[in-house]
Predict the structure.
Amino acid sequence: MKIQQLGSSLDSGCATQYLTTFLINDYVAIDAGCLGLLTPVSKQQSIEHVFLSHSHLDHVASLPLFLDNIYEQESQPPAVYAHEDVWRTLKTDLFNDRLWPDLLRIGAKGNRFLEEHLLVSELPIALSGLRITPVTVNHVIPTLGFLVEDDQSAVIIASDTGPTERLWELAGLQPFRQKLQAVFLECSFSADQAWLANESKHLHSSIFAAEIGKLSAIPRFITVAVHLKGSLREQIERELTALDLADLQMGGADRTWEF
C-alpha cells in the first residue's frame, strides 16, 4: 500500500500543509482539500474514488476544480463517497450555482461529473484491492476517520478529531491490528492553544501521546503527525519531538510511505 500526502503550498520546498488530501495507491483520494491542484492533470485523471471525511473547507476546497479538471463526456466519472451531512452541505453551500455551478444538476442532464455514494459509519467499502471502513470521530460536525487495509497492511487516517474512542476500538480488532503499519493522526494546535483545540475539537500536543497511547496493546507501528497549523508548525513539532514517542514522524508536503 502506498500513501502520499499531497502538498498544498506554492513553495515546493515547504512542508507545511494548509489543505488536506491523501492519495492511496494513486487511484483513491481521502479528502479533496488540494486534490484539484495536483499536477500534471494526468495524475488527477488516474483517481477513481474520492472519500470525504467532512465538509470543512480545508478538506473539500478543490473538489469542484478536480471534477472540472477531469471531466470528459465519454469517460467514467469518479466515485465520490461522503456522509449524508456532507452531501447536504455540498449541495446547499457549494454546488449551488452561486459559489460553484451545480455539477449534480448539470450532470443529470447529460454525462455525470461524479457518482454519488453514501458513507455510513462502520460500513466498509470494498475497492479493487482495498477495504476502507469509515468510523465516526469526535469533531464539531459529523466527521469520519478511515481504517484502510489490503491483504498485507493497514493504516489509520483519523481525520480531524479531538479525543475519540470508537476508531481505536475497531483498530484493535483482528485482523486489522495485526496488519497495522501506520497511524496518521492530527495535531492541530500547540500546548498553549489547548483551549482552542478543545473548543474546535482538535488535538493539541499535550494530549497527543495519550491519544496514540490508546493503541498501546498493538504491535509496533509508525505515527505520523499531520494537520499541524501552518503558523504553529515549528512549535508543534518541537513539542511533539519532546514527547520522545517511538516511531514518530512529521507529515509534510508530498511525503510518501509504502507498506
